Amino acid sequence: MRDLFPDAAPSQHTSTVLVVDDDPMATLLTSKILEPYVPTILVANDAREALRLAMTKTPDLILLDHQMPEVDGVDVLRQLKIMERTQHIPVIMLTGDDRLETVQAAIQSGAADYVLKSCDDAFLLERVRKWLPAIQQE
Q1: Where are the domains of the chain?
Q2: Are 85 and 62 in contact (CB under 8 A)?
Q3: Cβ atoms of residues 54 and 79 within 8 Å
Q4: What does the angle CA 75 – CA 57 – CA 97 come to, to the nearest 5 degrees?
Q5: CA distance 20 to 26
Q6: Dihedral (CA of 135, 130, 109, 104) sign
Q7: Which tens digits make up the pLDDT trace of 96-114?
Q8: What is the DSSP letter of 89?
Q9: Judging by beta carbons within 10 Å of its beta carbon (0-12, 13-18, 19+), is residue 98 exposed, middle or buried?
Q10: Beta strand 91-95 with 61-64: parallel, antiparallel or unpaired?
């Protein structure tokens, strides 16, 4: 995996990623994939915590699940995109939902990217790299 970021020095950049999923195991696995490359990883297990962290910590990138109880990921995305403090943050939908209508709703609502949870680690890291300039420039 290190080859995806050949010149990256993980401790020298300040990127922050917020990982949002109601499944704690999913947030743990995603965090483990990102850890060598992203120095600060925030985790939220529900929509309310995701919005609070996005507002208070202003991450550089958000990885957002679609299928969550109470408020789904597309609704969270819409809220993020209307708030001035968070509307500039790229959001990658990272979900198991491969239905066309969900993909379209996410993209129309402002998702920067849409990645299925079944993807391999290398593909996820490629997508993260695209949206994290601090990593991309190193």
Answers
A1: 2-136
A2: no
A3: no
A4: 30
A5: 9
A6: negative
A7: 999 999 999 999 999 999 9
A8: S
A9: exposed
A10: parallel
Q: How far apart are CA 3 and CA 77, in angstroms?
A: 31
Query: Which pLDDT does position 132 carry in this prediction?
Result: 87
Write out the two tokens for 28.
């743990």
* Whole-angstrom distance, CA of residue 112 vs CA of residue 133: 14
Q: Is the pLDDT confidence value at 10 over 50? A: no
- What tokens does 22 get? 């109601």
CATH topology of domain 2-136: Rossmann fold (3.40.50)
Q: Is the dihedral of CA 10, 15, 21, 23 positive or negative?
A: positive
**Is the CB of residue 30 less than 8 Å from the CB of residue 21?**
yes
pTM of the predicted model as reported, rounded to 2 decimal places: 0.87
Q: Which amino acid is at 84?
A: E
Beta strand 40-44 pairing with 113-116: unpaired
CA distances from 53 to 61, 85, 121 (A): 12, 12, 25
Which stretches does DSSP call E strand in 1-128? 16-20, 40-44, 61-64, 91-95, 113-116
